Amino acid sequence: MTIPPSLPAAPAAPGGLAAPGGLAAPGSRLASPAGGAAAELAAQAWQGMRALVLDRYDRRKKVCDALGMSFIRAKALRRVVDGPMTMRELAAALGTDPPYTTVVVDDLERRGLVTRTVRAGDRRSKIVTITPDGAGQAQLAERILNDPPRPVRELPPADLEVLARILGALLGTGV
Question: What is the pLDDT of residues 115-133, one digit of tens each?
Answer without folding.
Answer: 999 988 888 889 999 999 9
